Amino acid sequence: MLYDITSINGAYKFLSEYLEVDRDYIDLYIRRNPSKYKFKKFIEEIEFIKKIKFNNLKLEDIDIILIHITTNDDDCNSIKKYGLINLIQAITLETPLSKYLKSFNIVFDVYNYLIFIDEQVFSIRDYKESKEVIRLLYLKLYDDYNINAFFYVRDFKSYGGRVHEKPEILCNLSKAFNNKNISEKWKNNIHNKCYSVKFKVRLEELEWYTFYDNIEEYKKDYTKKDLIRNELVENALSVIHEDYFKKDSKSELIAYLKREVLIPYSNIIEIEEIK
Fold this sequence. Notes:
Strand order of the largest sheet: 1-2-7-9
Oligomer: single chain
Largest sheet: 4 strands, mixed
Distance between the termini: 32 Å
Order of helices and strands: EHHHEHHHEEEHEHHEHHEE
Number of helices: 11
Number of strands: 9
Shape: elongated
Helix content: 25-40%
């Protein structure tokens, strides 16, 4: 089954197939609840109408469609070569980002926690003893280096990371080494273009914190996965509800891939330049 809420039609299609209800019923429910839909009430109605137990619906064999926003100056040739890769690979393989960093004489020795800049060597191993900007740089490199994407985004330009302008790591480097030009030069390069990359992953390839607020919540639900089921359906409902009543909103639903997960080019559905 395909979980694609990147579009309104995709959200309808998933709900219709997963819950075995037609689109008209979903429309009717949304219209009856213009201010805020009540997820639990919706599920109760579905269980009554379809004579099913919602928590018994399977989560196996679900493919997730996501959108990744990126910028580059090579017409996505590196994506065609490597697929979508994580940050560690992006700064070490031959990519537009690694080449750009070398133009600033920035080289990473990731495994030894070292950054080389203009023949100077900086260690970020003891980041807890360092300034906040160094701590954030460390976390970006060693904790938040996995591929992030959107289940749904109404306006990608409103996303706080400004990923439509430049890679987030450039902002971390600019602040850590007090050199605004590191991020601004990429942003102002007329050869850099922004792209929306739509791709497919398996549900189990997403990090637990895509769906859970904390590790205790995740452990408690590890076997049943009731909260994942709830999130999938509720997020699809929210996309449809927003399309009806909040067309000017700037909401987004973010997915975090597991650190070891890479996206081969064969799993990329579409690459679209965003002007």
